[in-house]
Amino acid sequence: MPKTQESTRLTRVYRERYHWPLGVALICLVIELLLPESPRSRRSDAPAAAPLLQTAALIAALLLSRSATASPSSAFSDFQAGDFKAAAEEYNRLAADKTNDYRLRYDAGTAAYRAKQLESAQKQLDAALNSPDIISDLQAQEHAYYNLGNTLFRMGEPLPDPQQKEKCWQQSIENFGRALRLNTNDLDAKNNLAYVKQKLEELKKQQQQQQKQNQQDQKDQKNQKDQKDQKQQNQKDQKDQQQQSAKQDQKQDQKSEQQKKDQEKAQQQQAKKDQEKKDQQAQANPSDQRDKGEQKNDNTAMAQVQMSPQEARQLLDAQQDDEKVLIFTPDNQPIKPQPGKFKDW
Q1: Nearest-CA neighbor of 129 among 110, 156, 155, 153?
Q2: By the 8 A CB rule, do 141 and 182 touch?
Q3: Within 13 Å of residue 205, how many CA atoms lie on the same side as its CB?
Q4: Contact in structure between 129 and 142 (CB atoms under 8 Å)
Q5: Please, which residues have CB within 8 angstroms of residue 127's CB and are 6 or more apart in sequence?
Q6: Which of 142, 145, 131, 137 is nearest to 101 (CA)?
Q7: Residue closest to 124 by CA, chosen among 153, 104, 150
Q8: Is pTM beyond 0.90 here?
Q9: What contacts 24+ positions apart, CB below 8 Å, involve 22-31?
């Protein structure tokens, strides 16, 4: 933050302490009332009151020493010396004695802020602003809002949660704005307000980018998951299809084998029936069976003598050369010689 961010406002508070000696006087009067009365002539009884007087003096001395050690002046001196922790402790003790004094609350919160005790500073500054007596002191209100804005900004810086950080910085902006409404010429408040707004805007942009990145990552993870599920589903479907195809092939093979067995069985049965029928026919007609056997042999012989057309033609030509012409003449008719050459076979 700019240098002005570290600036704090401290007010010197003067307190009247007349009531302390007055209280000692009242205590002495009470002690005097408690002392027994004695004749003046008896001087031997006079030393009996000495211990009581010494006790009263000791109490008064303790009270005075306490008032001297815990005073706004000593706390202010510690603050100026840079001992912010001691100053905050003294201001806290003084504020605890008189809770309605907004000036002590303000000084305690300011000292705690400089001592890096941010939660204590916020608590004391809020208590000062909630005091009814601060309404008439506009300058104290403006200073308290200014310091509270600084405190809330510092409280939000180390927070890891972006939402909590945004909440603290938004409250810081509100307090700087209240300080400016009370004093529009406060340049430190203006600079700090602009700076916190800029940081808040950067935080929102960072959150948006982070949100987009998270959405993209979720989308990518979902796509990868869908692809993985689709791949597993395809593998499962392919495996199921292969198993189903194997089962169908197995069933088809079993069915084909069964059909083949049934067919062979039917053929065997048919052959057996035909054989039985042939046996019956052979027993009933043995001559037919013999004729069929001869016919079968003839057919076999014919099948064996089958030849090609060329071989048959050659065979016929050879047979024609061996043929003899037979001439038949009518009875009682003389044979006429034929013209030309004639060969008598």
Answers
A1: 110
A2: yes
A3: 6
A4: no
A5: 95, 99, 102, 105, 109
A6: 131
A7: 104
A8: no
A9: 23/63, 24/59, 24/60, 24/63, 24/64, 27/56, 27/59, 27/60, 28/56, 28/60, 31/56
Q: Which two tokens stand for residue 302?
A: 């014919």
Q: What value, to the nearest 5°, has the Cα angle with vertex 301 and ends 300 and 304?
A: 90
Sign for the CA dihedral angle at 24, 25, 26, 31 comes to positive
Q: Within 13 A of 239's CA, how many CA atoms are on the CB side?
A: 6
With tokens 């510092």, the residue in question is 154
CA 106 to CA 75: how far, in whole Å?
13
Examine the pLDDT at 35 and tell me if it is beyond 80: no
CA pair distance 85, 79, nearest whole angstrom: 8
Inter-residue contact 122 to 151 (CB < 8 Å): yes
Give the C-alpha separation, 231 to 228, whole Å: 5
d(CA 322, CA 142): 158
Structure confidence by residue, pLDDT tens digits, 260-319: 888 888 888 888 888 888 877 777 765 555 555 555 555 554 545 556 777 777 777 766
pLDDT digits (tens, 9 = 90+) for 53-78: 455 444 544 444 444 445 778 888 88
Integer Cα distance of 115 and 79 in angstroms:
10
Residue with token string 């195809």: 245
- For the segment 147-165, the average pLDDT, to the nearest whole number, is 92
- For 335, counting Cβ atoms within 10 Å of its Cβ (0-12 exposed, 13-18 middle, 19+ buried), the class is exposed
Counts of helices then strands in the chain (DSSP H, E): 11, 0
81 φ/ψ angles, rounded to the nearest 5 degrees: -80, -10
- Helix or strand (DSSP H, E) at 194: helix 187-284
C-alpha distance from residue 19 to each of 53, 91, 249, 289 (Å): 20, 20, 113, 161
Question: Residue 149 and residue 171: Cα distance in Å, rounded?
Answer: 7
Report the interhelical angle of 286-305 vs 187-284 (nearest 10°): 110
Distance (Å, whole) CA 293 – CA 153: 127
Please tell me the total number of residues recorded for the chain in this structure: 345
